[in-house]
């Protein structure tokens, strides 16, 4: 570009956008009003001109809302602006994912930067953006805000009226929770919020039943795998502290923060059986004198009764005697099998465990 068009025109500098519609006006032109003059843009056809017109209007308005909502003064004004923003996104003739996602991102940033809002402010904002959530997944920061609301206000009507269709959409259309783990966390918190209602587990069961019909007739094949993933992740979280204390594996918090597994972490399972030494074989052989010999391991957290299988020990010894690598299945059979295990869980973890075990039974 040369001359007047050497420098770009910022969206913030555009004061007005109009279609040229007077008689004998140039064909397919847009008029942009900027400080110091006007700019005419001519498109190849009316369709492209209209596309430019609505796109420029959208960009101009989004810039305005970002500016207004980045420095909120009065929350009555903020709420009114959010409602206007949502209406603009819903009535826009443009068809693009960002048309609905951009307002959600603006509100998400607003909530993350203002932690001193009242519960009533929270609920008003959630209700205001609810129409955008009917066909869109909430962004990660918004998921965290929803999780916090579920934990602090599980009996709020917002949980039932607004979050239910959002969670239904997640379970029906999500393809990979690995790419969006916060959606899974939000789904877990929503189910736990349902479990806190007076009818508790009955409400949860009713919700699960409503999600999926007979497999041959239900048009949503992702519901069952997604529900199983949610349940297993929730159950794992109940035992996370215990698991980390036993096998020294990285915690979920470390994994979420991107920490690498440290070198000094060693698994608790007897992987040494994969590389058997003669001393180990002789120790295992001494156990063949009795068919079953229980070994009691006691700690402050766990009481395990371990039984070693005599037949598996013989297989292991035979393999080593032939100077061959031990079979993986044999190694697993030789490994201790826990016949009884009882772990002390906190009252909250116990409630979570009971809820998701019931869901798995239903599934």
Write structural notes for this entry.
There is one protein chain. A hairpin with a 2-residue loop joins strand 2 and strand 3. Helices cover 56% and strands 9% of the residues. Among the domains are: 6-68; 72-136, no CATH class; 142-249 and 347-362, no CATH class. By secondary structure, the chain is mainly α. Helix 2 (75-91) packs parallel to helix 4. The chain starts with 15 loop residues before the first strand and ends with a helix.
How are the strands ordered across the major sheet?
A: 1-2-3
Q: Give the rounded overall mean pLDDT.
A: 78
- Structural class by sheet pairing and helices: mainly alpha
Largest sheet: 3 strands, antiparallel
Roughly what percent helix? Answer: 55-70%
Instruction: Identify the overall geometry.
Output: elongated
Q: Segments where pLDDT lies below 50 for 5+ residues?
A: 260-312
Distance between the termini: 63 Å
Radius of gyration: 30 Å
Elements, N to C (H/E)? EEEHHHHHHHHHHHEEHHEH
């Amino acid at each position: 570009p040369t001359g007047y068009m050497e420098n770009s025109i910022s969206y913030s500098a555009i004061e007005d956008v109009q279609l040229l519609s007077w008689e004998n006006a140039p064909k397919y032109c847009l008029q942009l009003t900027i400080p110091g003059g006007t700019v005419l843009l001519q498109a190849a056809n009316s369709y492209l001109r209209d596309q430019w017109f609505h796109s420029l209007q959208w960009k101009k308005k989004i810039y305005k809302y970002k500016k207004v909502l980045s420095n909120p003064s009065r929350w009555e004004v903020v709420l009114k602006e959010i409602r206007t923003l949502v209406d603009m996104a819903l009535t826009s003739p443009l068809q693009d994912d960002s048309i609905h996602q951009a307002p959600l991102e603006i509100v998400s940033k607003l909530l993350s930067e203002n932690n001193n809002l009242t519960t009533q402010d929270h609920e008003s904002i959630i209700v205001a953006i609810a129409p955008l959530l009917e066909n869109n997944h909430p962004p990660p920061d918004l998921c965290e805000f929803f999780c916090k609301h579920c934990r602090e206000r599980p009996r709020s009507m917002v949980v039932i009226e607004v979050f239910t269709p959002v969670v239904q959409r997640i379970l029906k259309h999500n393809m990979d929770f690995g790419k969006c783990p916060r959606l899974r966390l939000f789904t877990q918190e929503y189910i736990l919020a349902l479990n806190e209602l007076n009818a508790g587990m009955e409400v949860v069961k009713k919700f699960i039943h409503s999600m999926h019909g007979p497999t041959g007739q239900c048009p949503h094949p992702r519901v069952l795998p997604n529900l199983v993933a949610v349940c297993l992740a929730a159950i794992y979280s109940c035992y996370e502290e215990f698991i980390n204390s036993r096998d020294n594996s990285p915690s979920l918090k470390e994994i979420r923060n991107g920490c690498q597994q440290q070198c000094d972490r060693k698994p608790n399972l007897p992987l040494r059986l994969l590389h058997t030494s003669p001393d180990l074989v002789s120790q295992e052989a001494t156990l063949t004198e009795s068919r079953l010999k229980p070994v009691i391991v006691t700690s402050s957290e766990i009481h395990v009764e371990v039984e070693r299988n005599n037949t598996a020990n013989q297989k292991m010894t035979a393999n080593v005697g032939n100077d061959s690598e031990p079979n993986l299945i044999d190694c697993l059979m030789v490994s201790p099998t826990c016949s009884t295990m009882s772990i002390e869980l906190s009252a909250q973890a116990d409630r979570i465990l009971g809820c998701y075990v019931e869901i798995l039974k239903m599934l």
